[in-house]
């Protein structure tokens, strides 16, 4: 697209702003009277006609008003949207919510998707982190019977997973304690998904008594590591979306409801934002899914110790306040990553 003139940029920016606030097609008279541009309605009408020819705005029905197209929203987000920060009261609310977030990963994820939903008045979502993507803190081995033990994994942020292991032969409590102390020393500074590879390497190079210890430890870790669970996603605030005028149409609401009830669709949409920097905005047809062609997705990845762990964001109608959505998703993604990293207090 050729670069727009300053006047075209100004009219498009004003039109997007008005339409996202009230949801009604915007006419030239409305811009001329309400925005103090110093231009006549006829001049603005000519500018709007040129924007329509560029495919940035369109006439939804036989009225004088225009609305942004997907392409118009994209141009606005890429070229006209001003960078904003979350207001102080929003930052305070997020901090307050995290102070009372509960004592486990489930609560933290659910709380975060609620924060995104309530502050955006859209649907908020958080993809659960895989436990193995977190940092190792410690391991505990507890006997359940002569040949059965409970392996307790504790991540660097305090989150816990348990797994039961059947041993081939009985192991005295003293030996379990010795292996537990050994592993806690051996695994310091590693991530959970690095542990088995670390022991594999040690078994290949160890000799003498240490080889036997590494082999026994590897057997327990291999059998006792939590199974990789299917990727989960928490979605809150679906009612905010379904209450929007865009989704009063039964066909549109049915398509949207299908996405909200089958989160795999949303996980597929997030595929292109995995482990990438910044906030990503996907508008309408850019989502490449007919069920969300009337929606925009504002998403960001979150990290623990600069390591990609998952994604979160907002799903809403294309008619959304993109500046506010982007600043909110950016802020919450950083605060959520910090909450994961610092652990449960």
Task: Explain what this protein looks like in three dimensions.
It is a single chain. α1 packs across α3 and α6 packs antiparallel against α13. It is built from 13 helices and ten strands. The chain folds into three domains: 75 residues, Winged helix-like DNA-binding domain superfamily/Winged helix DNA-binding domain (Arc Repressor Mutant, subunit A), CATH 1.10.10.10; 154 residues, Beta-Lactamase (2-Layer Sandwich), CATH 3.30.450; 93 residues, Enolase-like, domain 1 (2-Layer Sandwich). The protein is elongated. Helix content is 47%, strand content 19%. The strands form three sheets. The chain has a five-stranded antiparallel sheet. Strands 4-5-6 form a three-stranded antiparallel sheet. A two-stranded antiparallel sheet has the order 1-2. By secondary structure, the protein is α+β, with helices and mostly antiparallel strands.
């Amino acid at each position: 697209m050729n670069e727009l003139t300053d006047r075209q940029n100004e009219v498009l920016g004003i039109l997007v702003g008005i339409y996202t606030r009230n949801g009604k097609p915007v006419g030239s008279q409305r811009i001329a009277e309400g925005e103090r541009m110093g231009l006549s309605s006829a001049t603005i009408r000519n500018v709007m006609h040129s924007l329509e020819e560029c495919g940035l705005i369109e006439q939804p029905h036989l009225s004088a008003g225009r609305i942004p197209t997907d392409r118009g929203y994209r141009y606005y987000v890429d070229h006209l949207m001003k960078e904003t920060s979350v207001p102080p009261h929003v930052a305070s609310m997020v901090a307050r919510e995290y102070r009372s977030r509960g004592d486990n990963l489930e609560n933290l994820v659910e709380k975060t998707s609620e924060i995104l939903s309530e502050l955006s008045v859209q649907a908020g979502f958080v993809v659960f982190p895989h436990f193995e993507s977190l940092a190792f803190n410690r391991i505990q081995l507890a006997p359940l019977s002569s040949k059965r033990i409970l392996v307790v994994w504790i991540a660097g942020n305090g989150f816990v997973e348990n797994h039961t292991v059947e041993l081939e032969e009985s192991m005295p409590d003293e030996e379990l304690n010795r292996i537990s102390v050994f592993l806690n020393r051996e695994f310091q500074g590693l991530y959970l998904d690095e542990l088995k590879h670390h022991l594999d390497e040690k078994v290949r190079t160890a000799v003498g008594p240490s080889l036997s210890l590494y082999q026994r430890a590897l057997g327990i870790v291999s059998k006792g590591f939590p199974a990789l669970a299917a990727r989960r996603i928490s979605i809150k605030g679906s009612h905010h979306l379904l209450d929007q005028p865009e989704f009063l149409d039964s066909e549109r609401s049915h398509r949207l409801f299908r996405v909200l009830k089958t989160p795999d669709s949303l996980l597929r949409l997030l595929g292109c934002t995995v482990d990438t920097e910044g906030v990503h905005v996907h508008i309408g047809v850019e989502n490449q899914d007919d069920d969300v062609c009337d929606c925009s997705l504002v998403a960001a990845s979150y990290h623990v110790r600069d390591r990609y762990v998952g994604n979160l964001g907002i799903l809403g109608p294309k008619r959304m306040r993109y500046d506010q959505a982007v600043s909110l998703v950016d802020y919450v993604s950083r605060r959520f990553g910090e909450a994961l990293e610092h652990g449960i207090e």
